[in-house]
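[agent] plan:
  1. take the single chain provided in the ticket
  2. run structure prediction with default settings
  3. attach structure tokens to the ticket
  4. add a short note for the reviewer (M.T.)
[agent] executing step 1
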Amino acid sequence: MRKILLSIIEWWLSLLARSKIKKANPKIIAITGSFGKTSTKEAIYFVLSKKFGSDCGKNWGNMNSVVGLPLAILGLRNYSFGPGFSLDLFRALWGYFFYRLPKILVLELGIDKPGEMDKLLKIIQPDIGVLTGISETHLEELRDIEGVKREKSLMVSAIKAGGFFIVNGNDKNCLEIRPGKDVETVKYGQNFDVSYSDLEISISGNNFNIRANKEIRPVKSKLVGEHSLNILLSATAVCLKIGLKLPEIVESLEQIQPQKGRMNLIKLKNQMILVDDSYNSNPKSAVEALKTISAIDWDGRRVAILGNMNELGEYTKEGHLKVGEEAGKTVDLLLVVGPNVGNFLKGAKKSGMSEDNIFCYPNPEKLIADLDEKLKPKDLILVKASQNKMRFERVAEHLIGDMEVSRNILVRQEKKWQKIV
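[agent] step 2 finished; step 3 output follows
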């Protein structure tokens, strides 16, 4: 009965949102991919809103699902997981009649099951589509990397004629996907249409040169790590096609702050630095995070606190081994949590890491109880795990040691999250 009711609600919300879009006819920028969706959406929105103000909108937070996206289009910035959802449906109906859609919409499309992308694309048709990358995520439902590609390719195929396909040129899986007729492809990455050079990574962020349309500009970004350049390059590619000039884009890029729980560097006591990447994890993003802390010039220890990566299906063992192997190359101390600690351990030992420097815990609570004894002054500490049953923002909260500060700078601090394991 519950599934039937949910299906009816999804259909009703989709109907309202599709009608709202048809009436307002905004320019739609859609972002999808296995990683970097939210940060890319926020970067694009930030730059465009500097130029267009309230004429540019977005889906707030993670309202990117078959329920969240239509609610966002109908004017909601959040919604309840519980009894309050009935009030959200009333707010959605109100929004259908009275909410004014912006002229430009920057929309993140998130899926974890086959068929969900098709549902989202019945609501919107992108003028510009951004594909951030494809990797082994949500494999319990999507089965394998080909299943991920099939779903993501639906968004690319839906881009309007005369539109633009903005794609990560360094991701071979992305390059196998082609848009429809009369859609221009713009590649970003190293040595592509929008590219970078002379990268310097530090605790303060990335310094690099950006190149587009035969023009080169220096950028001082607050985002850290080579992988974060994709966020800035894709935002640049989109904004150029909207009509902005490179100098004004760069001015805005330099103001972008890291998103909560996404490679956010936080100063701790005893000259320690927390690299808070606790929002979520998968093998691709975990390896990139480890490479980033390795690239930072640091005279203390590098410590990785890694938790289970969920929804990997048959790739579970290989994915955890791969991340463990990278950790063994890059950190001095490795603390691992969850049902796949054995694979983290094997991978790290394969890279030559001593078992004396690897500690395994069954759950985050056991880790937190032991954490203070394991850390030293001047440690650079990466914290990263999947959300479900890991909730590593609680590990970050323990390291910060101040509840008020944590509420302002960590992910999932809203009341609705406090009851969720």
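[agent] step 4 note for reviewer: The CA atoms of residues 83 and 99 lie 24 Å apart.
[agent] ticket updated
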